């Protein structure tokens, strides 16, 4: 856990210097390289895109809702199914090349009891099905990627919230940022 000298305040939440660099770095890169494809702006290369994983739990912080990305914490369930349960897939990910991967994503097996979640800013998430900040205690499920250098940071390609598991796309376009081999 970073000490007070190693933390910065982002909105009303303390964010470690390392996580702040990951998030701000992606935004800064986008401002200098506007001709790059959308995935570069959204920082997918910073995440282990070879391995989709499923997580589930409850929102455990008010988070920071804004640009360049919204952040909040999720306390993970202590028992997860072997892979993604059957959930409604957003239309952007219904291509069999993507929906098969999302539905087959194995559950998180890491050591973290909670993860910091990075999602698209409110303007994008609002278009895709989340028009408000998530509330502490609210159910959260997602399929996405763990950060390559910070195993406490997770970026979904899709997530579901609330008791009705409302789906929210998190990718621009109609395909996953990287299509790892199909599961056998």
Entry summary:
20% of the residues lie in helices and 27% in strands.
Overall geometry: globular
Identify the strand order in the major beta sheet: 3-4-5-7-6
Structural class: alpha+beta
Number of helices: 4
Q: Average pLDDT value?
A: 82
- Helicity range: 10-25%
> Rounded to an integer, what's the Rg over CA atoms?
15 Å
Low-confidence stretches: 1-12, 24-42
Number of strands: 8
Distance between the termini: 39 Å
Question: What's the SSE pattern?
Answer: EEHHEEHEHEEE
The largest sheet, given as strand count, sense and whether it forms a barrel, is: 5 strands, mixed, barrel
Indicate the proportion of strand residues: 25-35%
Structural overview:
By secondary structure, this protein is of the alpha+beta class. It has helices at 17-32, 38-41, 96-104, 122-128; strands at 7-10, 13-16, 53-59, 70-76, 114-119, 139-146, 153-161, 166-169. It has a five-stranded mixed barrel. Strands 1-2 form a two-stranded antiparallel sheet. Strand 1 and strand 2 (13-16) form a beta hairpin. The radius of gyration is 15 Å and the shape is globular. The termini are far apart. Mean pLDDT is 82; it is low at 1-12 and 24-42.
List keywords for this structure.
8 strands; 184 residues; 4 helices; two-stranded antiparallel sheet
Task: Explain the layout of strands and helices.
Elements: E1 7-10, E2 13-16, H1 17-32, H2 38-41, E3 53-59, E4 70-76, H3 96-104, E5 114-119, H4 122-128, E6 139-146, E7 153-161, E8 166-169
Parallel strand pairs: 5-7
Antiparallel strand pairs: 1-2, 3-4, 3-6, 4-5, 6-7, 7-8
């Amino acid at each position: 856990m970073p000490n007070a000298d190693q933390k910065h305040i982002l909105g009303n939440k303390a964010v470690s210097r390392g996580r702040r660099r990951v998030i701000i770095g992606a935004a800064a890169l986008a401002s200098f390289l506007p001709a790059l494809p959308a995935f570069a702006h959204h920082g997918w290369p910073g995440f282990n895109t070879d391995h989709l994983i499923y997580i589930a739990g409850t929102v455990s912080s008010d988070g920071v809702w804004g640009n360049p990305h919204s952040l909040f914490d999720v306390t993970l369930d202590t028992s997860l199914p072997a892979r993604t349960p059957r959930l409604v897939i957003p239309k952007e990910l219904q291509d069999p090349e993507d929906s098969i991967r999302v539905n087959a994503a194995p559950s998180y097996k890491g050591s973290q009891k909670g993860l910091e979640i990075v999602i698209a800013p409110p303007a994008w998430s609002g278009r895709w099905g989340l028009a408000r900040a998530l509330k502490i205690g609210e159910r959260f499920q997602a399929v996405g990627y763990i950060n390559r250098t910070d195993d406490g940071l997770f970026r979904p390609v899709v997530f579901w919230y609330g008791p009705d598991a409302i789906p929210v796309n998190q990718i621009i376009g109609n395909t996953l940022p990287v299509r790892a081999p199909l599961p056998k």
